[in-house]
UniProtKB/TrEMBL annotation:
<dbReference type="Pfam" id="PF02181">
    <property type="entry name" value="FH2"/>
</dbReference>
<protein>
    <recommendedName>
        <fullName>Formin-like protein</fullName>
    </recommendedName>
</protein>
<dbReference type="InterPro" id="IPR042201">
    <property type="entry name" value="FH2_Formin_sf"/>
</dbReference>
<dbReference type="InterPro" id="IPR015425">
    <property type="entry name" value="FH2_Formin"/>
</dbReference>
<feature type="region of interest" description="Disordered">
    <location>
        <begin position="348"/>
        <end position="368"/>
    </location>
</feature>
<feature type="coiled-coil region">
    <location>
        <begin position="245"/>
        <end position="272"/>
    </location>
</feature>
<dbReference type="InterPro" id="IPR051144">
    <property type="entry name" value="Formin_homology_domain"/>
</dbReference>
<keyword id="KW-0175">Coiled coil</keyword>
<comment type="similarity">
    <text>Belongs to the formin-like family. Class-II subfamily.</text>
</comment>
<feature type="domain" description="FH2">
    <location>
        <begin position="1"/>
        <end position="364"/>
    </location>
</feature>
Length: 368
């Protein structure tokens, strides 16, 4: 309870007060109402497909095998064979061997393919360098997206905890619950479980025309109408409810691992020689800036973790039992149900007003 809205409310007195309730009206509507619980649905995330490494054949397999057989018949080092061809030395190569070599001269397509691989082979650990390059390209986007999501969670947490209107509505719901349960062990509660908010729309009046959520909105409209737009205090709540902390942790880990690969390749490329001088200079510049970004991101990530836990604690819940995703999901559903009931009440009031006006007009016309 310590640090929760329930504990704070007892210190703040009238600042978080609930409106006065007409107990006789409440009793007439809900005295025999029963509460049904709502179930929660869990979301599953499909694992990403694992791509198997693909084998690239530079030369057709059959052609490569035949070439290998031909070379075993010539039985000489390749440099000697090339020298004999260039010297037109008939003492080294006979006609059959030359004819076989003609058959296995590389095609234009094979030459282009081999040029590509030979160029890549000039660069030490070319695959590692390409992976570092790919990380460099996506780094800013990854960091920006992660920072945006983390900031959204922080903003939503702050908005919920600082909304005096939400606090007063929670106190009103508590007062309603105690009024309904008066005379029982539950009639003097100092707080309630967060998922109880979802039961307000399941609790129906005896006439079956009104739910406890409708009654809450009616009560507030009559006594404290300034609270009806409390949802405007919570502008980041819905966006935050769609963010999974587990995925943010995975993104944070991926950025850290990518940075480790950058550091490893920077160290390894020291012995590459002249070919990697420009690469090392560009990579060092990127690493210096990236490390500062990641340090800031790690600090924000740790802050968000504390704030996410504090949101559950604010409602007197255990973060292990009621994690951030569940808290925000419940609050979003509650806000939407509240708005729906509020709007339905307003339409009913307007319809009733028009009905009375028509009745007055008819009565007036009849009097004339």
């Amino acid at each position: 309870m310590q640090g929760s809205l329930w504990a704070d409310a007892q210190k703040q007195g009238n600042q978080a007060r609930a409106p006065d309730i007409d107990l006789s009206e409440l009793e007439s509507l809900f005295s025999t109402a029963t509460v049904t619980s709502s179930s929660e649905k869990g979301a599953t995330r499909r694992g990403s497909a694992i791509n198997k490494p693909e084998i690239v054949h530079l030369v057709d397999m059959r052609r490569a095998n035949n070439c290998e057989i031909m070379l075993t018949k010539i039985k000489m080092p390749l440099p000697d064979m090339i020298s004999a061809i260039l010297a037109l030395d008939t003492s080294v190569l006979d006609n059959d061997q030359v004819e076989n070599l003609i058959k296995f001269c590389p095609t234009k397509e094979e030459i282009e393919m081999l040029k590509f691989f030979l160029e890549l082979m000039k660069v030490p650990r070319v695959e590692a360098k390409l992976r570092v390059f790919a990380f460099r390209i996506t780094f800013s986007t990854q960091v920006d997206e992660l920072r945006t999501n983390l900031t959204t969670i922080n903003d939503a947490t702050k908005e919920v905890k600082e909304s005096l209107k939400l606090r007063q509505i929670m106190q009103t719901i508590l007062t309603l619950g105690n009024a309904l349960n008066q005379g029982t062990a539950r009639g003097s509660a100092v707080g309630f479980r967060l998922d109880s908010l979802l039961k307000l729309s399941d609790t129906r009046a005896r006439n079956n025309k009104m739910t406890l959520m409708h009654y809450l909105c009616k009560l507030l409209a009559e006594k404290m109408p300034e609270l009806l737009d409390f949802d405007k205090d919570l502008i980041h709540l819905e966006a935050a409810s769609k963010i999974q902390l587990k995925l943010l942790a995975e993104e944070m880990q991926a950025i850290n691992k990518g940075l480790e690969k950058v550091e490893q390749e920077l160290a390894a490329s020291e012995n590459d020689g002249a070919i990697s001088v420009g690469f090392r200079k560009a990579l060092k510049s990127f690493l210096d800036a990236a490390e500062a970004e990641v340090r800031s991101l790690i600090s924000l990530y740790a802050e968000v973790g504390r704030n996410a836990d504090s949101l559950a604690q604010y409602f007197g819940e255990d973060p292990a039992r009621c994690p951030f995703e569940q808290v925000t999901s419940i609050l979003v559903i509650f806000v939407n149900l509240f708005k729906k009931s509020r709007d339905e009440n307003a339409r009913n009031v307007e319809a009733e007003k028009k009905k009375l006006e028509k009745e007055k007009e008819k009565a007036s016309a009849a009097g004339k």
